[in-house]
């Protein structure tokens, strides 16, 4: 079998050159990291679940007209996505106080916010993805004013969509992170939702019990991460109960 060209290896995913120009194969690994990779483990099946969950959310976004990079799922661990230039920002949307914002501002976790709060972090592992303002973003040329308007609009549309989908299965969308890609179409550029949307990048709490069904289970040692992610997948009908996410088979 021909070796595929690896383009990039991140903490949770590996990217390979896709079969057609302008495409990329996104491989979901089982590696889990937190606190800027100070805590790490391999959680069997996590990659499979995130591949399925991200497919589900990105397909839903396509259905409601929110542009994103997803083309199709290839297998249990891989999906074909559109190649794009990643804007070096993590875009975080919060509906309830939690995580770093709760800590930074001394607000009790779970406090409802009067409106969704959008935050931007500069994507740089060595710096620990620091929080930045729109002033930094403009001054350092990471995104233009028009880009920022488009990014805000995309982030809020994703928030409304995800909140509604999760509400339908009894889950509260506390916050999430998305990444944005730049694609070129002739003389025009367009911004699209890229990377992944999964239990790795969202805070999801059971509406009745408050049980955490996201990566905080790993970050805070709250039990089985696979059980938490499987529960989200099961409620969404993405993976039937009893199905076991298989072991990784990285073919390169
Ligand atoms: P916080 O800033 O509270 O740590 O995170 C806010 C939200 O963004 C959470 O849902 C968290 O999972 C997500 N998030 C923040 N940074 C990252 C990151 O580097 N990777 C992933 N997968 N999610 C992140």
Structure report:
The chain has 252 residues and is of the alpha+beta class. The chain is built from 6 helices and 14 strands. The protein has helices at residues 46-63, 99-105, 134-139, 145-167, 216-219, 225-236, and strands at residues 6-9, 13-17, 23-28, 31-34, 39-42, 70-73, 78-82, 85-86, 89-96, 112-122, 131-132, 171-185, 188-194, 202-206. Strands 8, 9, 10, 11, 12, 13 and 14 form a 7-stranded antiparallel sheet that branches. A 5-stranded antiparallel sheet has the order 1-2-3-7-6. The chain has a two-stranded antiparallel ribbon with strand order 4-5. A hairpin with a 4-residue loop joins strand 6 (70-73) and strand 7. The model has no long low-confidence stretch (mean pLDDT 94).
Topology record:
Blueprint (H helix, E strand, L loop, with lengths): L5 E4 L3 E5 L5 E6 L2 E4 L4 E4 L3 H18 L6 E4 L4 E5 L2 E2 L2 E8 L2 H7 L6 E11 L8 E2 L1 H6 L5 H23 L3 E15 L2 E7 L7 E5 L9 H4 L5 H12 L16
Antiparallel strand pairs: 1-2, 2-3, 3-7, 4-5, 6-7, 8-12, 9-10, 9-12, 10-11, 12-13, 12-14
The site of guanosine-5'-monophosphate (5GP) has 15 residues, from strand 9, helix 2, strand 12 and strand 14.
């Amino acid at each position: 079998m021909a070796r595929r060209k690896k383009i990039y290896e991140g903490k949770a995913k590996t990217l390979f050159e896709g079969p057609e120009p302008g495409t990329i194969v996104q491989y979901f690994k089982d590696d889990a990291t937190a606190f800027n990779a100070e805590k790490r483990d391999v959680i069997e099946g996590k990659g499979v679940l995130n591949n399925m969950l991200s497919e589900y959310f990105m397909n839903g976004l396509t259905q409601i007209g929110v542009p994103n990079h997803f083309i199709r799922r290839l297998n249990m661990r891989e999906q074909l996505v559109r190649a794009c230039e990643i804007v070096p920002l993590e875009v975080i949307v919060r509906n309830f106080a939690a995580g770093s914002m709760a800590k930074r501002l001394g607000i009790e976790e779970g406090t409802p916010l009067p409106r969704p709060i959008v935050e931007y972090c500069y994507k740089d592992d060595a710096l620990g993805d620091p929080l930045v303002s729109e002033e930094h973003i403009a001054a350092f040329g990471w995104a233009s004013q028009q880009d920022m308007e488009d990014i805000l609009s995309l982030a809020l549309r994703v928030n409304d969509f995800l909140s509604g989908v999760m509400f339908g299965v009894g889950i509260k969308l506390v916050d999430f992170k998305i990444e944005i890609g730049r694609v070129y179409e002739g003389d025009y550029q367009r911004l699209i939702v890229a990377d992944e949307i999964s239990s790795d990048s969202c805070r999801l709490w059971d509406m009745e019990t408050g049980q955490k069904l996201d990566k905080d289970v790993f970050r805070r040692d709250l039990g089985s991460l696979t059980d938490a992610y499987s529960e989200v997948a099961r409620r969404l009908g993405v993976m039937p109960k009893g199905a076991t996410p298989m072991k990784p088979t990285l073919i390169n």
